[in-house]
Amino acid sequence: MKTALHSISYSGSWGQAKLPLEEIVQRASTLGYDGIMLAGKRPHASLLDMTPEVRSELRSRMTDAKIEMSCLAGYTNFTADAEHAEVPHREMQIHYVTELSRLAVDLGGTIVRIFTGYEHPLLPYSKAWDLTVSAVKECARRAADVGAVIAVQNHHDLAAHSDAFLMFLKAVDESNCRAAFDAWSPALQSDDYLTAAKKLAPLTVHTTIADYVRVPRFRYQPELVNYRRDEDYIQAVPMGEGFLDYRGFLKALCDHGFDGCVAYEMCSPLRDGNSLEVLDQYARTFVEFMKQTAAG
Q1: Cα 144 to chain center, whole Å?
Q2: Which helix (H) or strand (E) holds 236?
Q3: What is the pLDDT of residues 153-176, one digit of tens each?
Q4: Which among 143, 250, 278, 291 could bridge 148 via Cys, Cβ 3.0 to 4.6 Å?
């Protein structure tokens, strides 16, 4: 299994240290990764900034660093802003994904990761499902025209459960619409993510992972002189220290047909802080974890 560092980890999005794209490419190489997963938005690979000259320079930089273009991460929500039907949000997002597909190919890759949609109070579930299936189908067809593959990640509300996710991919029914199946979402839903990995492995071309612990939360109720149990806080920790069985997950994927890239992301506050040193420590720990996993 090849590894990729998700550039979102060094985007500063959760208060952590921030690096420009060109530095992340070299950092991924220095830290021992095979490739990079680029966030298709600012401060990294935004379509607004990726001119032909920038694309050429970035591809040369990646070649020099021996870093592959593993995946381009799109950020979509096909159910957004149902309050204003006159605004063509889905058309804009389809165009965004189409142009991300061109960018991915220009940078030497093929895979564009996208999301489905969040549930919206103005959209009945069946309507949201149909709109999103239709949008992703068009994204896949347009991506195919430029030689790219759409990989849907089980992240947003719609089709988040593994059974619904599989149904969604079958409903899209495009040969270049595949899965970017990860373990985090089903684990939090108490879904059997090891069994789900076996089912989805033949469709999965990319997976993104990060490890977490559950932090118990309680809310004091003075009238009862007691505490009420709240939902756990999910805290990011170094690979191997959390509650997710990633060795079992990756084995289930690989044993049933997965042969894609495994990306590491730091996409929430980290237990040990937000300094550049902590980010690098977590990133190195993932590489070591993957080496140990490959060694059995």
Answers
A1: 21
A2: strand 226-237
A3: 999 999 999 999 999 999 999 999
A4: 143
